[in-house]
Amino acid sequence: MREAYHDQLGELADQLASMCAMVGDAMEQATKALLDADLAVAERVISGDAKIDDARAKCEEDAYSLLALQAPVATDLRTVLSVIHAAESLERMGDLALHVAKAARRRHPAAVLPEEVRGYFSEMGRIAVDLARKAQEVIRTQDVELARRLDDEDDAMDDLHRHLFSVIMDKEWTHGVPSAVDITLLGRFYERFGDHAVSVAKRTVFVVTGRMPGYASGGDDL
Amino acid sequence: MREAYHDQLGELADQLASMCAMVGDAMEQATKALLDADLAVAERVISGDAKIDDARAKCEEDAYSLLALQAPVATDLRTVLSVIHAAESLERMGDLALHVAKAARRRHPAAVLPEEVRGYFSEMGRIAVDLARKAQEVIRTQDVELARRLDDEDDAMDDLHRHLFSVIMDKEWTHGVPSAVDITLLGRFYERFGDHAVSVAKRTVFVVTGRMPGYASGGDDL
User: Fold this and answer.
1) Chain B neighbours among A 133-172 (CB < 8 Å)?
2) Which domains does chain B have, with CATH numbers?
3) Which residue among A64, A99, A191, B219 is least packed, with the fewest CB closer than 10 Å?
4) CB B82 within 8 A of CB B207
5) Which residues of chain A lie closer than 8 angstroms to B211, CB-CB?
6) Running along chain B, 222 residues long, what does each successive block of 10 average in pLDDT?
7) Which of B68, B176, B181 sits opposite A73 (nearest CB)?
């Protein structure tokens, strides 16, 4: 019974890790579509989102089966519930990558981003993808220290996000309101993606240590 | 055992219903703070958010206890998991009301909203509060038809949200980029609040019918 439980739990962790890879790739491609105004890449991200939704549905179903068949208690129960929460965050990360790709498609063949802010999105994209991949590593290794470092990296994302606002709100901004609106929403998509990646890693730490570091929904202060 | 289970489940439903009332009130007050540039009201919403977070933590803890003690299976298991998901959505709705209140505080004593968009926010606020209260009613009555009607009301919210963008992106817009950025984010907070309210109601329908109507994260298409 215990062995079957641990096998199934390991299987769930593999599914979560694979979802991290999927959403990291989706955000990497979405950022490329955004920076290069590449419609084909945007379309691939958009059509690929259903696979992430399916992966979440399967992960949730398997977690439900495990709960129903093994009826775990105490820490084991919390572990399985953490998997369900993490899968929800990961699906949401996929949605956010989808939103970025849709923004690229909506403005195509025009570029969404004026030159002044390209660097910000290039860097926020890099951090977002890195956060997803590090969350994957935390799931695989259960490395509590690495999970803590994700918080620092997410702080860098939040700093970029704040600076981005100062750029578009500056008197020198010549690209008008529609562009500022696009950038405001896009900035928020990256920032929320980072928050969810941190939340996934924190849930894994919780599973390892039995204590939730800080609170999972933090960072979203705007 | 079954009776204890149903008592505890009824207790969880009461907690969810009470959270609906709390987040509905928070959004009502936050909208008032926004429309009237009322700092005292904004501060009350901001300091009141901790109570919503606590209510979610208690609801989740009680749901965990119920799972651990009663080890429900099949529909019963899904019901308890739906409660956990709904509580998460409700906490997030509280966060979104908090963001609205913080926007009002950030610009005080200036008003955040130019005259042209006040009507939009007044109406989006009304719908948001109504959605939270109807979600509460769905939890209390398990009225599947009412849950379906929430979807239509949320469509009205999405329409307002889209029109709002056409107002701020119009060439006649004279309030500049900073104001457009505030309005973009605020519009999104209301729209997401509505999505979560619908998701809470849908989870309740799921509990009653055993089938999830559509998909819980829908509507967030921008």
Assistant:
1) 165, 168-169
2) 2-209 (1.20.58.220)
3) A64
4) yes
5) none
6) 83 95 98 98 98 97 92 86 94 98 95 96 98 96 92 96 95 93 97 97 76 50 44
7) B68
